[in-house]
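Protein Record: Sequence and Backbone Structure Tokens
======================================================

Structure line: whole-number tokens from a learned vocabulary of local backbone shapes, matched to residues.

Purpose: to set a sequence beside its fold so the mapping can be learned.

___
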Amino acid sequence: MTVGERIAQYRQEKGLSQEELAHLLGYKSRSTINKIEKGERDVPRKMIAQLSIVLNVNPLDILGENEKSPSLSKREALSNMLENMTENEIEDLYDKLK
């Protein structure tokens, strides 16, 4: 299963449309989500962190890596993702999720 397919699965499990997910992530339309789910666009690292919060899933589950390191907690996985973001990116993410 691809990253895009996993995102689509988690989005559908939460009962969200592509449009609703796009809005929650700060996008104006569903086109970015649609392209990611179809595998036509890579998922930026920052978006993985946002998706993990919005969809309430472990970032490693989105990436398909959780099987490789099942002992990593959601908190640790999110912390690892946030380590690679700038302070401004983290503040922007926090503001979007308020």
User: Anything to note?
Assistant: The helical segments are 3-13, 18-24, 31-37, 45-54, 59-63, 74-83, 87-97.
